[in-house]
Amino acid sequence: MTTYFLQKLAGKAFLAGLLTFSIHSISNAQVFTGGNFGVNYDNNGVYVDLAPEIGYRYKVVEVGIAPFVSYKQIDKAHHYSFGSRVFSRVTLYKDIFAHAEFQVTNIEIPGTVSSDIFFDNRKWIIAMPIGVGYRYKISKNITAQGSVLYDVLLDDDSPQKNPIIRGGIVYDF
User: Fold this and answer.
1) CA end-to-end span of the chain, whole Å?
2) Rounded CA separation 31/48 (Å)
3) Which residues contact 106 (CB under 8 A, 6 or more apart)?
């Protein structure tokens, strides 16, 4: 009976401590939203990426998600991709941050008929861009940021190429 009572008490104390920590963490944390716009050029054409994002900041660490849609033009052919990113940023010094993410993308695979390029099937690819960035405070709640990333898992079929350059606006709630 005593063991059962102690287990219940310990469980309630743990939950109370967790709740206190969570409330304290939320009061010192900040939810943010915004988006990124990326452009990438290579010999095969242009790649454009648009990604709204939402995240959570606590002290120097940010984590968030960003669904995205992208467009690539190769010669006269066009194709669209979509996917999602889970990202983390850590402030290194003042407004300089390290960025790492895990990304899954559904892409169209090019095929050819004669000399024409067409896109006939789709494939999921995984990416892991890492890099550094800089943020510039525009107002109390609005920040502009830019980053240069390198995809360490770059798939041969990936529509983006290294380096990946992104810029965006972030709004802090």
Assistant:
1) 49
2) 27
3) 81, 82, 83, 122, 123, 124
CATH code, 30-172: 2.40.160.20
What totals of helices (H) and strands (E) does the chain contain, helices first?
A: 1, 9
**Pairing between β-strand 164-172 and β-strand 142-151 as defined by DSSP bridges:** antiparallel
Contact between residue 68 and residue 50 where contact means Cβ atoms under 8 Å apart:
yes
Domain boundaries, the chain: 30-172
Largest distance between two CA atoms of the chain? 81
What is the model's pTM?
Answer: 0.73
Pair type for strands 77-93 and 96-113: antiparallel
The CA distance from 79 to 87, in Å, is 25
Burial of 27 (0-12, 13-18, 19+ CB in 10 A): exposed
> pLDDT (tens digit, 0 to 9) for every residue of the chain, 173 residues total?
554 544 454 444 444 443 333 344 445 569 999 988 877 777 767 888 899 999 999 999 999 999 999 888 877 777 889 999 999 999 999 999 999 999 999 998 766 555 565 656 889 999 999 999 999 999 988 999 999 999 999 998 887 889 988 888 998 88
